[in-house]
Every structure is written in structure tokens, then in C-alpha cells.
Specification:
Elements lengths: L9 E3 L6 H11 L4 H6 L3 H26 E7 L5 E10 L13 H11 L3 H13 L6 E9 L8 H16 L3 E5 L2 H9 L3 E2 L4 E2 L5 E7 L3 H9 L1
Amino acid sequence: MTNQTNQRITVRRPERAEVPAVAEAYTAANLHDPVLSWVIHDEDARRRLTIGTWPETTAAYLESILHSGELVIAEDESGAVAGISLWERIDHSQGTGTPGLEDPEGAQFIEQAYGEYADRMKLLVELTGQRQPKDTHWYLLNIVVDSGRRGQGFGGAMLREQLGRLDAEGEPVYLEASSPRNRALYERVGFTDLGDPIELPDGPRLQPMWRPASVEAQRSHSTG
């Protein structure tokens, strides 16, 4: 699926066989993410994990996302992956979503992946989990763009394509904005603040945001 506003960018959902390559691009793009930089404050350790040991672990994580949500990627004109976004459909009544701290599998994954930084990651999961809306919704867990391709429309292209599809299905979306720049981007596509920011100790402020379901789609579904 090609983004109609920029023919250089292709937005699509990768096949399962592509997950290892997507995982490698995802971990590399996360190196300087403000939230990950708070979790793993030592840059050498962060680089060692994201570039060295995480691609295989991340591939398993992305596989789990495919069971409860979707991966959406943006490619440049050469076909290289420039952006990756992770989306989960959260339905608390059905227990959908990746395992949290209350699940031994989720806690074990954090211990294995983050090692000495596991406690900081657990705190992040706990604080963000407390703010999750109770209504069924889609959750944008993360959206990253390769450091050399930022500001070129890849993030916006992924957002517009996925939000257009979710609008057609009458689905609301929740996320946490990790920077003022991201927050401004999300506001431009219809998100509004949902309560006060989440305060990470000596770290970035995460602003919960909500985008309601399309009224037109809700009417269509209710009468269909």
C-alpha cells in the first residue's frame, strides 16, 4: 500500500517471514529513543543491547504483537525499512494484549531482555499500565523512524494509513506521547490529551492521548 501523499514512501504490513529483518531495523531505530534512554541510561550498554543482543529477542516480541495486533512499516523508494510502528488491540474483557507484569511470561521477558535495567522497565510498564483506558481500543505501543530518515514523513505516513483503517472500523486509539514534537504530530491527526502526564523519575514526561472512534463508522457498524 503506497501513501498517496508521498510516492517515495510505501506503508504496509510485513509478512511473518520478514519479522527478523523488521526487528533489526526496529532495535537500531530505538537506540536514541527518549524512553529507552531513560530505561537504559548508559549509552554504551544501550548500544550493546539494541545492536548486539536484542534483534533476536525483539523478533520474538514482534511475533507476539502479530497475535494480538499489527506491525505497520514504512519503506523508502529502495525498499529499505525506514519506520516501524507497533499496534495492539486491547480488550480487557478478553485478556488481549502482550503479557504484563502480572503474567510470569511478561515479567520473565523483561528480566531476560533488560538484565540490570529490568526494574526501570518494570516501573515504566507499571506506570503506563495504570493509565490504560478500560474501554476496548487500539494501543499504539511505539512508532520509530531510522535516525537518518526522521523529518521526512515516514512516521506521519504510518499514522495516516493505520488511523484511516481504524476509522473505517470505528475503533478508538490510545497512546503516550514521549516528546513535545510527537505530541504535536499526534494532535494534528486527531489525538487529545487524556489526563495528566505520566512522570518518569528524572526522565521524560509521557502524555497519554486518546483519539475517539469515527462517529460515521460507529453509525455504519450499528446499522449494518
